[in-house]
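User: I've been going back and forth on whether these two constructs are worth ordering. Before I decide, could you fold them both?

Assistant: Sure. I'll take them in the order you sent them. The first construct and its structure tokens:
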Amino acid sequence: MSQSNIDLPARLLLNLAPWRNAKAWHIAFSGGLDSTVLLHLLAKLAKTESLPPLSAIHVHHGLQSVADAWPDHCRSVCDALQVPLHVSRVQVQPGASLERAARDARYAAFVEVTRANEVLLTGQHRDDQAETLLFRLLRGAGVRGLSGMPRQRRLGKGYLLRPLLDATRADLEAYAAEHQLSWIEDPSNLNQHFSRNYLRHQVLPVLTARWPQAIASMARSAGHMGEAQGLLGELAQIDLSQASTPGDFDWLGLPSLELAPLEKLSDARQRNALSHWLEPLTNLPDRDHWSGWEDLRDATGDARPIWRLAEGELHRAGGRVWWLSGAWLRPPPAVGAWPDPALPRVLPDNGVLALTGQMPDGPLQIRYREGGEVMDLPGRGHRDLKRLLNESAVPLFVRGRLPLLYKGQQLLAVANLPGLDGSTADGWKLCWQPPSEDQGLS
């Protein structure tokens, strides 16, 4: 028995010390070796230590018939350890990567059970970290990817923790043998069609035969990369603080940055700052697909550049770059009559509209711009709406969804634009709360 195996419970407690005040600890319990050891360790520690309430979650993917027996196995293990078990049955969406689709379904189930001030514990260990590093290296990952699996990260409203990352698979096997634990052997783990299994069974044994410390060295490199990524994050925050200036259209509620401070940075610092900013919003492109950013950045003033990404689009307007997703990418449906202007009006796919102050005489209608609109302004006469929008520097992507208030064929007001949004003399104003849901923010 190795010295490291003897210290496994103590090391686990040390790694989890900052999280002892969490409301609950959920254990991701597949029934395999790693999660079985983690569950057993925590159940034993709970008898002598004051720990948050423990529970286990088993995700049943339904991808292979043999897996139908796994929930019963997990239930018997949890019953013996007196740990409550939740079984979550998920649908794995078909796609190019079955591994990724299953992972996405699994983590969606984890998010569902992990509430605020709760943590989900998973059993990944140092060998898994080495596999992750090697797998990402072969895919050409950057510093963020090569930092491997983080020890902790946000998960929905709670956190995901990997408290066994400094233990080896051999440590876990020795603990399981000592305590005569039984676990599930997933047949798919032998299928070397899956890249990680190929690395585990074919590549890493060759590496460790030549360099016995290879796994420890790779895990250490992942730690160095994690530290480097932290420094890049701090640099990004410095650069983003220069670009996160207030603008005239902050009321849109859209993420935006001032372009000029970004343009002063080197290309590498631009990519670093934007990656940091975009990471919570969308999947990021690899290094070879940043030409969309360069086209947007370098476009002439009268161009309408758009950089399309996985979960939305980056637009350029008014000296700023804007993140659009969800409802902002769909033209709002027509609205029509406003029967009771005293009540706020929900606009399909376009937020909420309200009139404040003395109500104008009706009947009133809500429309969107089609072109050719004219507005009669006190002291200025008839003015083209297009020119008025240009004078107000309204971003082009907003113009087609700005609510317009009509009485018959007369354009009375344009929501939210000072001087155009109502009547000072009559004491009313048209106020628009743009769409805030389905923005793609996480």
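The second construct, handled the same way:
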Amino acid sequence: MSHGLLVAGTTSDAGKSVVTAGICRWLVRKGVSVAPFKAQNMSLNSFVTNEGAEIGRAQAMQAQAARVEPSVLMNPVLLKPGGDQLSQVVLMGHPVGELSARGYHGGRQEQLLGTVLNCLEELRAAHDVVICEGAGSPAEINLRRTDIVNMGLARAAGLPVLVVGDIDRGGVFASFFGTLALLDKADQSLLAGFLVNKFRGDVTLLDPGLATLRGLTGRATYGVLPFQHGLGIDEEDGLRISLRGTVRESSSAGPVGADVLRIAVCAVPLMSNFTDVDALAAEPGVVVRFVDRAEEMADADLVIVPGTRGTVGALRWLERRGLAKALVRRAAEGRPVLGICGGFQLLGEHIDDTDRVESREGSADGLGLLPVRVRFVREKTLARPRGQALGEQVDGYEIHHGVADVQGGEPFLDGCRVGSVWGTHWHGSLESDGFRRAFLRAVADTAGRRFVPAPDTSFAALREEQLDRLGDLIEEHADTDALWRLIESGPPTRLPFVPPGAP
């Protein structure tokens, strides 16, 4: 049996995905065969494997960090939030229904745990090490009985647990101690220690606190990772990081020159796969910003309507905020618009969801910018298409319930183009370097910009650089000898129990 580790966190967004990816890259550079694993993920950012299965984008990124092919084994349960407090349950890469949080936690966990453990064992049989990522916090005691991703997984699989805390949020020592104290004795016996993430300043200032934490808990701190901008990994949710460090959540970019291309992305509700624009943000001279007001897109050279898990809901949101009228006006003026997946669907003439697969609203008229009629069906399209556009080869992936009937326009990546408006179901197409440059040149020409894409920007190479930076973080700032002993030998013996309320 291979060795393993569970990377948990004091909170969501504490840095579990980054640390898991960093450990994978550190290990594979040492010649260790390693694979990532997340039993249950909740995210609208997903990916299609070569098996035709849907998994979280974060696990696909971690597989790249480990230099292995992404597999459905790495993320057997994926929850995709939708409207009405429901989430689509994706089991072994394919949707099996929609459930509320109460319904999900109400009775299938034993069956799901069996599936999860089978996947983990398959990965263990094929690799020297499996690095597992938890979800949220292991101290969510209201969900402990049905937990299959944090301490429930660790106990079932005998995994040591490393808890990551984001010190940039403040209160990291209390979070470490409180996380441990809320666990029962059996779970505490698996929690081996802590890892501080996103520290700014002189690390020696932490020494008294780390020493006190060890005295109170009997657990070591395995490292202090410094804060770093622009790590550029695929997040589960959030709009912050790009490969060149652009702060994408802000729409308050300063004045830019004529040689800079400005791209506005509509921040639609239930946005999915916003990582589609990472490749654009990686280009020198491109400013990417997310917007939710019509005036914020006024000076944009390109507006992107991204994917969404609620196409009709996103359409209504665009209408309420005046963005729908602004998009129609842009198209009439011949200014570039790109719709991707759900964004493509709502740019069409009509959306038929009579079976209420997604919208719960039946049918709706789209913005009418493309000659496309969309019908939602229960079977989800999961594909890895390859084709050509603008004279360049393009690779992408598709994840959608909507079937598009394209009734005119110029063919474009299985979608269409009419004038300055493009639409496609293909996610990830902009990661194809030649196509991205050709597309940006077309946008710049239409917008009248003197913008020339950099001829040597390689998105894949930039992603590799970022993954190496994650590996460097672990190698340079974690106690890798102690970390390897933990991975190799399992939870330390005789870890003290810390009762709630202590000291």
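Notes on the second construct follow. Residues 459-477 form the longest helix (19 residues). Residues 239-257 have pLDDT under 50 and may be disordered.
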